[in-house]
Each structure stands twice: as C-alpha cells, then as structure tokens.
Amino acid sequence: MLKKTYKFAIVSVVMLLVLGLTLPACTSKKPADTEQPSAPAQAALSFKAKTYTNAKDGFSIQYPDNWVERPEIVSTTIVAAFGVPGFVPGVSLSVRDADKPLTADWIVAANTAEGNVGVTVDSPLKETTLADGTPAIEYKSSFKSSGYDIVSFGISADKDGKRIRATVWTIDAFSPYDEALFSEIAHTLTVK
Predict the structure, then answer these.
(1) What is the pLDDT of residue 5?
(2) What is the H or E stretch that residue 7 is in?
(3) Which candidate, 81, 104, 77, 100, places its Cα nearest to that of 164?
(4) Residue 150: in which H helix or E strand, if any?
C-alpha cells in the first residue's frame, strides 16, 4: 500500500509541476512579433490650436489659434497659409506631384517655383514620423521672399503620388526662428 501511495504522490507532484508550468503560458499575452504596430501617441501641444483640413488632398495640420488666414500667400501649389496678424511667423501648406525623390535639389526647385530666390537647404534631410504614423522628411531651409530673409522648418510627406509640405517660417529680424515650436507645428501634419 505504501508503494501505491508513493507512486500516487509522485504522479500528483509531476502533474502539478506540468500544470504549474503550462498554465502561465496559456494565459500570457500573444508573442510580441504578432502584435500590431500602433501610431505614435499624440503629445499635448504647447499652444492652443486651430485645425486646417484639406479634404481634397486628404491632410490636416494644427497651428496656433491666434494665427489668421494668409490668402495673399496662396498660389497654384500653396493651398493654404496662416500666420500672426503682423505676418511672421507663419505656416504655408503646399501640394505638388511627388514625381521625383525628395532631395535638397527638389526643395530648392519647389521653393524657387513658388517665387522665392536664393533658396538653400540648411540642414540634412532627416527621416521622421508624423503623429499619425506617416513617414516624412524634415529639414531647415532659408530663402528670400519679397525682399525679406526667411528662415523655415519644413516637413514633407508623400501620399497618393502627391507631396504635401508644411513650411513654418519667419523673418528672423522680426520674430526669431524657434525650431522647437516650428517643428511642433509641422509635426501636427497628418496625411491619413
């Protein structure tokens, strides 16, 4: 009888060990490699915002709520612009064909076609991700517009064969370039 009890005890211990090891595996989360990626969380903005939405080209952007529309800046490729009532700083939004890779030469040509002169790209083109998960390219550039020296932070994202660009700009002599703010505004661009 002692042998049977001993065998029963060993079988019971082995079963408890097996159950103890397999139970957590049955209740754990699915493996990390099967989880779906999510878009980056939208951080709280440092400014109270208004939102511009362009339904035709499928994008939107947020900008400071004390900025006003700047229709005098709108052209064939610049579809919207906003800025402080005293003109600078501001943001312009353009839509062009994404017919060539985004390079410094492309940026110079696009800004020149919008009537600017002396366009330079003043930083490396850097890959970034918008809050909606869209890959984009950011860069700093400068140019002359209507005789004024403009410093800007730009971000471009491609969607359905179009290149959507947000350029946040200023005239440094009137309102100093604020890369943190300009980047924050540009990164609110969503194209999904």
Answers:
(1) 46
(2) helix 2-27
(3) 77
(4) strand 148-159
pLDDT in tens, the chain (192 residues): 545 544 444 444 434 434 443 334 444 443 333 333 334 445 699 999 999 999 999 999 999 999 999 999 999 999 999 999 988 999 999 999 999 999 999 999 999 999 999 999 999 999 999 989 999 999 999 999 989 999 999 999 999 999 999 999 999 999 999 999 999 999 999 997
Dihedral of alpha carbons 149, 117, 83, 130, sign: negative
Domain spans, the chain: 2-28, 49-186
Half-sphere exposure of 1 (CA within 13 A, CB side): 0
Backbone CA torsion sign across 102, 103, 109, 111: positive
The CATH classification number of 49-186 equals: 3.40.1000.10
This prediction has a pTM of 0.77
What token pair was written down for 143? 């140019």
CA distance 169 to 152: 4
